[in-house]
Amino acid sequence: MNSQAVRAQQITEWTLCAGAWREYRANFVEPSRPITETMLRLADLRPGERVLDLACGVGNPALDAAARVGADGHVLGLDLVEAMVDGARAVAAEAGVRNVEFRTIPDERTLGVPDATFDAATCRAGLQYMPDRAGAMEAVLRALRPGGRFVAMTLGSAERCMPFQLTNGIVSRHVPLPAKAPDDDSGPVGLSSLKELVHLFGEAGFVDLRTEVFEAPIFEAADPASAWEFFARTAGPFIPLLESLPEPTRQAIHEDAVRTFGAAFPDGPVRPTGEVLVVCGRRPD
């Protein structure tokens, strides 16, 4: 599958769930705050700075970054998916955040910004979906001023990320999981090697690399049924598959999910964790 076909498929899949990501913000923004805080700490944002957030989704961590840089600073969020950008704009408007802007881009290499105009950049759980990761890294490097910082976060493998471990098992007990093209390694855990992530930074020209690997909550739901609803409505790559199934199969998967999440979290809210990989690099002076 060529890069443009991968992007087109991703736009279709994430458009389907963009509204749900806005609707369920409370299920992931606060539970996964340790991830956001780690990224922004490494980015070392300061009042008055300009920040670029690539693959911004519905505004996380762009809105938190906007608070860090203050009224004299500015955050620009970029995403392939127009519906995600619309959601981010709506969330920012509801929160009264004025120093943030969101735009769509045609691909991860074409950011539409002048060179050397940003002090810092972030990319939360976005690089693993990009077919041209090296091109994205080079584009971010160009956008940064000398000395500018870039922080990227991805997830560990499905075996080290409980949400995917559970949901992959649930779905695969009833239907085959969606097949990937042999030359397409994009996806939720498509960049799950710290070594590979560090290599991307180094090859792009970033220096003074710092890494952090830790376990953190990915989302939270009040009960097993709510946990499955969150996944089924926000997991872009799975939505076309789930919607294509006959009602008896969907119901069987739902019942399996409730049992599985209930067994994993018998005494309280469903709060699955996963391995988080974070790398920070600096554009040379």
TrEMBL record:
<keyword id="KW-0489">Methyltransferase</keyword>
<dbReference type="Pfam" id="PF13847">
    <property type="entry name" value="Methyltransf_31"/>
</dbReference>
<keyword id="KW-0830">Ubiquinone</keyword>
<dbReference type="InterPro" id="IPR029063">
    <property type="entry name" value="SAM-dependent_MTases_sf"/>
</dbReference>
<dbReference type="GO" id="GO:0008168">
    <property type="term" value="F:methyltransferase activity"/>
</dbReference>
<protein>
    <submittedName>
        <fullName>Ubiquinone/menaquinone biosynthesis C-methylase UbiE</fullName>
    </submittedName>
</protein>
<dbReference type="InterPro" id="IPR025714">
    <property type="entry name" value="Methyltranfer_dom"/>
</dbReference>
<dbReference type="InterPro" id="IPR050447">
    <property type="entry name" value="Erg6_SMT_methyltransf"/>
</dbReference>
<feature type="domain" description="Methyltransferase">
    <location>
        <begin position="47"/>
        <end position="155"/>
    </location>
</feature>
<keyword id="KW-0808">Transferase</keyword>
<dbReference type="GO" id="GO:0032259">
    <property type="term" value="P:methylation"/>
</dbReference>
